[in-house]
């Protein structure tokens, strides 16, 4: 079942529970319950969408930014933004644990 720590989750997690005979499986979708959790979830989904093909096609141009191709710069932006979202998520989880 969901614990207090699950409230700041940034992604939908599928938990599978087995009954005593092992055949009956139920799936429970755990979604964020706080505004901060929803904000992180939306930020994570936006970053995933920024890294898939339609956006990559728009960014893949013969343009240099600071001597690097635009696609490489876009990739760096996505990676650093992912790190930032994960850091914020960890801070929120730590804050919830101390309260």
Task: Write up this protein.
- The protein is α+β, with helices and mostly antiparallel strands and 99 residues long.
- The chain has one domain (4-98).
- Helices cover 53% and strands 16% of the residues.
- The chain has 3 helices and 4 strands.
- The chain has helices spanning 35-50, 53-59, 70-98; strands spanning 13-18, 25-30, 64-65, 68-69.
- The strands form 2 sheets. It has a two-stranded antiparallel ribbon with strand order 1-2. A two-stranded antiparallel sheet has the order 3-4.
- Helix 1 (35-50) runs antiparallel to helix 3.
- The longest helix has 29 residues, at 70-98.
- The protein is elongated and about 50 Å long.
- Mean pLDDT is 79; it is low at 4-18.
Per-chain topology:
Elements: E1 13-18, E2 25-30, H1 35-50, H2 53-59, E3 64-65, E4 68-69, H3 70-98
Antiparallel strand pairs: 1-2, 3-4
Helix pairs in contact: 1-3
β content, as a range? 15-25%
Order of helices and strands: EEHHEEH
Indicate how many domains the architecture comprises: 1
Major sheet summary line: 2 strands, antiparallel
Key terms:
alpha+beta, 99 residues, two-stranded antiparallel ribbon, single chain, elongated
Sum this structure up briefly.
With 99 residues, the protein is an alpha+beta fold. The protein has helices at 35-50, 53-59, 70-98; strands at 13-18, 25-30, 64-65, 68-69.
């Amino acid at each position: 079942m969901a614990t207090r720590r699950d409230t700041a989750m940034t992604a939908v997690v599928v938990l599978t529970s087995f009954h005593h005979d092992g055949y009956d499986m139920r799936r429970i979708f755990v979604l964020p319950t706080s505004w901060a959790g929803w904000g992180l979830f939306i930020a994570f989904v936006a970053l995933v969408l920024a890294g898939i093909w339609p956006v990559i096609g728009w960014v893949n141009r013969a343009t240099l930014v600071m001597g690097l191709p635009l696609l490489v710069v876009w990739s760096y932006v996505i990676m650093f933004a992912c790190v930032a979202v994960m850091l914020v998520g960890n801070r929120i989880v730590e804050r919830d644990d101390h309260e």
